[in-house]
Each structure stands twice: as C-alpha cells, then as structure tokens.
C-alpha cells in the first residue's frame, strides 16, 4: 500500500472558489419580530454554490486522515473503528426526542437510559451509573465530587488525592479542580504502583487514590487487592480511571478489584465518535455507598414503566438533561450488538493485536507483560519518528508519554485492525526506525500539511475561514 495524501490548494489560478470574495447577503428583516439590536442587515458568508461547497469539504476530507483511512494506534486514546450501524440507530426518527417531553411519552428513551445504566454497571462491577458527564475528564471530576460529598456526609475532612506519576494528566487536573491537594506517587522499578510508597503516602487526609489498571504502560497492577486494602484502611476511596476499558471488557471488573467509583469513556471503549472535541460521554459508576450522591436525574424501573428520580443526597447536575444523549444511544447499540461474548472477544483481540504488533517491530519495549497497549522507546526523538510514520501511510502512536519510557511511542492498535493492517503498521514503524536523521528531520513529506510549527498552531489556531482570511 502506497500513500500520498491529497494536497488541494483552493483559491489559486486554476480553480477559483471565490472563498475570499464575500457577498453581502441582504437579509429580509422588515417583518422580524426581534428587537432591532438583535438583528443585522447582512451576513458575512462566502458566495458558493452547493457543488462548490460539497467539493470543498470533500477536498478537506481527502487532505485529512481518519480511522476510515487507516489505523490510528494512539495509546490510551483507543481510536477504534466506529461501526456505522450505530449512526443508523441514532438517526432513527424516535431517537431524537425533545428533552422536555413528559416522561409518559418517552418511555422508550427512558428504558434505553435505564438499560445503559445497568449495562455499564454490570461491565464495571458497580452498583449505579450516571450517564450525564460529557467526557472522560468530566466523568473524573464528577466522580471526585461524588467522593467528596460522601466524605463530607460522614463529617470527614480529607484534603488529599493520591495519583501515580504514570496517570493521565486529567487525573491531576480533576483532583485539583475539585479542591484537593494532589500527592504524586512514584512508580516502582517494574512500572507498577510501589505499594510501600503508597503505604507511606496514605493518611487520614487521603480522600482517594486514582488508578488506571492496566496502567498507562499496559501493565496490570497485580497487587490491586493489597492496594485497595491500604487505601480503604486509611478511610480513603479507590477511583478507577476506566477511560480505556479495552483490556478488561467482559473479563475483569474494577468493582471486584475493590474500586468504589469509576468513569467510562464511551468514545474510547464503546466505539462512539471521538476526537475533534467530541461530543463524547464519560458515564460514572459507583458502589452502593456512593449511589445516593450521584448527579440528578437518574432513571429507574417501576411496575408500570420507567421514571426519573433525584438521588437522595445528589451533588446536582453536571450537564443538561440526559448528557450527550445521541452518543449514549450509539453506546447502547454497540454494547447490545456485541453482547457479553462480543465484548469479551473485543478485549481478547485488543490484547492479541497489541502483542502481535509488538512482536513484529524492531524497537525496545522496556515494560511487559503488557495488555491492550505497549510503550516502545524510539531511541531518538519520538516526535520525529512519529512524523516519519505519517509518510508511510499510518497515523503514529502517542508520543513522549508516559515518561517512564525514554522517547515513548505509546501504541494501541485496538481490536478493529486485521493482521494485514497490523503488518503494514509494523513496516511503518520499522522503516521509520531505519531512516536517517535527515529523513526524519524532513518528515512528513507526503502529507497535505508538512512540518508545522506546533507551538504557533496551538497558540494561534485559525479555526475559521474568516480568521484565515485575516
Ligand atoms: C482519554 C483519557 C482520559 C480523559 O478522557 P476525555 O474524554 O479525553 O476527557 C482520562 N484518562 C485516561 C487514561 C484517558 O486515556
């Protein structure tokens, strides 16, 4: 398979889409019932016909790369393919109900919410689940607020949350945003939690320990039961960062390991759209003791159907209405289609694919045995190796994190890739490794956008054609 990304340049001699020529579009405002200060006489819009517009967006898509172009093996991000049948389900005429409709007229939507709460609770080994948080980080924040409300209800003043150094950056941020002091826990030599260091870190100030298992190196925390005991004995709670459940699905449950509260990223584990700012969803599951503090409303089953209710000591709302509702419809469709056996099969293949890919590449992988992802060391600038991989027609892995591996390439192929696709990915890894420093420094050469100035792109993003025009 060869790769050359399309490079369209709009607005030059041969093709003139008049993007820069704005037309002042007269708007009929005479009969407007709106007050004058809320209306305007013209709109600053490009003057384009429908075919021009369709072609513009098609060209943009050809200059881009998505999971429908090839694999995106971003470790931790779990960029699995989103099956299109879930879009069909979310597009059913009955799916998009108005959130203010009376409950008696939306029993189907309520049933779906109820069943999804139950599915996720069963998958995580939790008692109750809220579907409201709109992203993983929002789920973490919600989960920590629930934990905080629990401690406050028991008249406990606890000021610290312990987070291992290998944790996702959002864990530190969520704990801090909820008003806690963050205590960073160093890892042991083998990349796992150092249980002795944990013993030394816990105290009557410990509100919770936030943990990912398998951790960001793909390693399973074998001592999880002992870890849970240490935290619980100190009166703290165990938070599970379940953004990426791909190694556990249908096989092991955070609730059974001793976790009290967790979030799920449906846009990582349950094949709903991902990236570009969402929308995603980050449901939160809790143990029985924490259930009264969940956001409101929750859905329950009654003898005559389904209804919403307010948990007894709710922390309130973290999103309007039911959260990102149509994303949740897709989540439900995906889980229902796969079923228990399908979910367990997905995790088996995710782990097999990561291990197969690792066995095919010529890179040092310092930590093992890993599960759904592995972290290879690039041996030189990981970002340059990643840019070179773009030239070989694949999306590169996550770079330079976690820091326990020098010049990290954190790689997660997901269960969706075939053996051919994994072999292609492996060739891209190895060809980039064999290329000269000069090749790497010139990369990428075959993409629509060449080497970009990342700092300016982040600081001065031009996200609209007006901004580009200026
Ligand atoms: C992606 C991720 C998050 C955050 O999820 P968002 O939906 O991006 O907010 C948290 N923890 C881990 C381990 C993740 O991979």
Question: Can you walk through the features of this model?
Answer:
Helices cover 36% and strands 13% of the residues. The chain is α/β, with parallel strands linked by helices and 470 residues long. The strands form 4 sheets. Strands 3-9-8-7-6-4-5 form a 7-stranded mixed beta sheet, sandwiched between helices. A 3-stranded antiparallel beta sheet has the order 12-14-13, covered by helices on one side. Strand 6, helix 7 and strand 7 (237-242) form a beta-alpha-beta unit. The longest helix is centred in the last third of the chain and has 36 residues, at 325-360. The two termini are 40 Å apart. Pyridoxal-5'-phosphate binds at residues 76-77, 135-137, 168, 170, 212, 241, 243-244, 265, 280, 282. Residues 145-275 form the Aminotransferase class V domain. One of its GO terms (biological process) is glycine decarboxylation via glycine cleavage system. GO terms for molecular function: glycine binding; glycine dehydrogenase (decarboxylating) activity; pyridoxal phosphate binding.
> In terms of structural class, how would the helical and strand content be classed?
alpha/beta
Computed Rg: 25 Å
The poorly predicted ranges are 14-20
Order of helices and strands: EEHHHEHEHEHEHEHEHEEEHEHEEHHHH
CATH topology of the largest domain: Aspartate Aminotransferase, domain 2
